[in-house]
Specification:
This protein has about 260 residues and is α/β, with parallel strands linked by helices. It is built from 8 helices and 8 strands. The protein has an 8-stranded mixed sheet with strand order 1-2-4-3-5-6-7-8, with helices on both faces. Strand 1 and strand 2 form a beta hairpin. The longest helix is centred in the N-terminal third of the chain and has 24 residues.
């Protein structure tokens, strides 16, 4: 009997550790989460955007740093922001991290690509307005603004490319989707897309078709597809050291 209870205790402890690790894997924007601070931006239409904010750990006076926008999925989590907040990543890639919380009842951007009824309310316009405001007050390098996101955030990343190609230096959409007809509007933004082969929530064909069309049109696109992986492809994507090296190497050319 004693051995039985020892085994039960061990299982409970392991379960608690796994749960704690799972919570650390994703940041929920707008909630208290070290080392992020929670801030609010009020747009011109009085709408308020709550976001989690992280500055470079050892910022040097007079120097400008990249800004990474991390768009969460429908479940509210962003693995990208949590990864960028680790000590090793902050030392290797000093940058600002902006993880916004989507407006209540809204997605980042609406697309007819899914064949579903799109929500009329979008959060991406307010995020872009916040970015442009932060460029005036923070030591952000305007040539190194990046956008990434998982699932709903992947959709938002493609939308950012299509609608605001002048603003972003690179994009990493993970299991996202968008209308291929908008590819001509995306060509100014290098992209590395990720998707799981077995994704049934957001069909894999979107990432395949979009990256193929961008390459055919003369743009810069990379694509990684994980064999045997379903919708949760962000776990592997944001642990890919080569992706982060590529992302932070991108810089917008003057005049773009």
């Amino acid at each position: 009997m004693r051995r039985y209870w020892i085994l039960v205790l061990a299982v409970c402890l392991l379960s608690n550790v796994a749960t704690a690790q799972s919570r650390q894997e994703q940041l929920r924007p707008g909630e208290k989460h070290e080392p992020f601070t929670v801030k609010t931006f009020t747009g011109t239409d009085k709408a308020q955007l709550t976001y989690s904010w992280l500055a470079p750990a050892d910022a040097k006076a007079g120097e400008k740093y990249p800004l990474v926008i991390c768009l969460h999925g429908a479940g509210g989590g962003t693995t990208a922001a949590a990864v960028l907040a680790t000590d090793d990543m902050r030392e290797k890639y000093p940058c600002f991290v902006l993880a916004p919380k989507a407006l209540e009842g809204a997605n980042w951007a609406a697309t007819p690509a899914f064949g579903r009824k799109a929500r009329s309310k979008e959060s991406l316009p307010l995020v872009v307005e916040a970015i442009r405001s932060l460029l005036k007050t923070e030591a952000i390098d305007p040539a190194r603004i990046y956008v990434t996101g998982q699932s709903m955030g992947g959709v938002g990343s493609w939308a950012a490319m299509a609608r605001h190609g002048d603003l972003f230096a690179a994009a990493v959409p993970v299991c996202g989707a968008w209308d291929v007809a908008d590819v001509p509007k995306m060509l100014a933004v290098p992209v590395w897309a990720f998707h799981g082969e077995l994704d049934t929530t957001v069909p894999t064909r979107f990432s395949r078709e979009l990256t193929e069309a961008i390459i055919k049109a003369g743009g810069q696109a990379k694509y990684t597809e994980y064999k045997g992986v379903g919708h949760g492809s962000w776990q592997a994507a944001y642990q890919d050291a080569a992706m982060w090296d590529w992302l932070f190497a991108q810089r917008k050319k003057s005049g773009e």
